[in-house]
Amino acid sequence: MASKRKPQGSGTKRARARRALPYSTLTARQKATYDRTTNLVTDLRRGDGSYTELLRKHHLGSRTARKYAGRDLFGGTRGKPVRASKADRRARDLMFPQSSGDVRVRTRSSRDATKLSDYYNDRDKLLRGKLGVADFEAKWSGVRIAGQELFADAPVILEMAEADVLKLEDLYASVGPER
Question: What pLDDT is attached to residue 177?
């Protein structure tokens, strides 16, 4: 009785979209490159420039960008421009505000990253006196991001700033020693 399976190697060969490297296995240096690649994909999605301009802006090579972006970049062959996928499930380590200070949280949502960025911009305005306590609390009280409620107690935030507990340099969590 003959086998019904096709012999291996016959048929057409299709290029498969490459998976991005698992975030948890990356070293600190690789995480920094991954974060730059995430910024590249975001800028490419927004249309902030051509692919080559954005590679230069984010200090990346084409091979490195494809290595870390995986399925999020496609095109670039046979005269087609490189484009970014519409869906975004890239892992990010972000600083999340809590009553004890800012703690690291991993998320896969660009919406969460954007909302946290807006929160930190408003918190910075609060600390500089450009946003009132009542306005800050009205906007951020009870807001949940990634299933956790934001810490929006303005008087406590101001006390924490006086005690030098809030030292946020960047929204993204630090991935290595300071330079």
Answer: 45
Q: How many helices (H) and strands (E) in the chain? A: 6, 6
Q: How far, in Å, CA of 103 to CA of 61, rounded? A: 32
Q: Are residues 154 and 107 in the same domain?
A: yes
10-residue averages of pLDDT along the chain (179 residues) = 61 61 85 91 89 95 90 81 79 83 83 88 91 93 89 89 69 48
Q: Judge if 158 and 97 occupy the same domain.
A: yes
Helices 62-69 and 28-46 pack at an angle, to 10 degrees, of 90
Residue 78: exposure state from Cβ atoms within 10 A (0-12, 13-18, ≥19): exposed
